[in-house]
Structure formats: C-alpha cells, structure tokens
C-alpha cells in the first residue's frame, strides 16, 4: 500500500532504479554481510529483495530472481559465502521480523 503523500512517491523511477541497483551491487560486494544478520537488524535480506522484484513484476522465477540479486546462482552463493546461523542470530531475526510493517510484507 503506497501513500501518495509520501515524498518517496515523487522520486523519479530512473533515480529509484539507480539507487536500487547501487544497493544490490553493494550487497553483492559485501558478502560478509550475512543474510541472517541483515534480517536480524533490518528485517530484510537479499532474498527479500529477490521476492520484492518478483512482486513488482519481474518475470523470472524465484531462482532467477535470487541469482539476479546475488550475482550468482543461490547454491553457489550459499556454498561460498553463507555461514551457519547461530541460535542468537535466529532469535534476533525473529524479533526483527515482528517489527516489520504488516502492509509491507
């Protein structure tokens, strides 16, 4: 649900797209920023971005969307960069997700 009074709605699409691409490229470079840590702090991660582009109309399937965001197939990314989540990280993620706005899920 978008709020037409939100100044974000006035942001030109080309500017928003450029900022989104910059965010994705930043996350592709920062492999040390684990998805579980992003979820625990901000309530979203690379996989969420992949879901969001599909929600916005991207024609690719889930695997294609994740590859687009990760910059490589998901299985490869997991093997090369993902570490096992600790119980503490999982708890932080669960607590963080509860803070997300329901209309933005």
What does it look like?
The chain has helices spanning 13-29, 35-42, 46-55, 62-70, 74-81, 87-97. Helix 2 packs across helix 6 (87-97) and helix 3 packs across helix 4 (62-70). The termini are close together. It contains six helices and no strands. The chain has a domain at 45-105: SMc04008-like (SMc04008-like fold, Orthogonal Bundle), CATH 1.10.3340.10. The protein is mainly α and 105 residues long. The chain is 60% helix and 0% strand.
How is this structure best summarized?
The chain has 105 residues and is mainly alpha-helical. It has helices spanning 13-29, 35-42, 46-55, 62-70, 74-81, 87-97.
Task: Record keyword descriptors for this entry.
0% strand, 105 residues, 60% helix, SMc04008-like fold, mainly alpha
Task: Look at the structure and give the mean pLDDT.
Answer: 93
In CATH, the topology of the domain at 45-105 is named SMc04008-like fold
What is the global morphology? globular
Order of helices and strands: HHHHHH
Approximate helicity band: 55-70%
Instruction: Assign the CATH superfamily of the domain at 45-105.
Output: SMc04008-like
CATH class of the domain at 45-105: Mainly Alpha
CATH architecture of the domain at 45-105: Orthogonal Bundle
Q: Structural class of the secondary structure composition?
A: mainly alpha
Number of strands: 0
Q: What is the makeup of the main sheet? A: none
Unreliable stretches covering 5 or more consecutive residues: none
> How many DSSP helices?
6
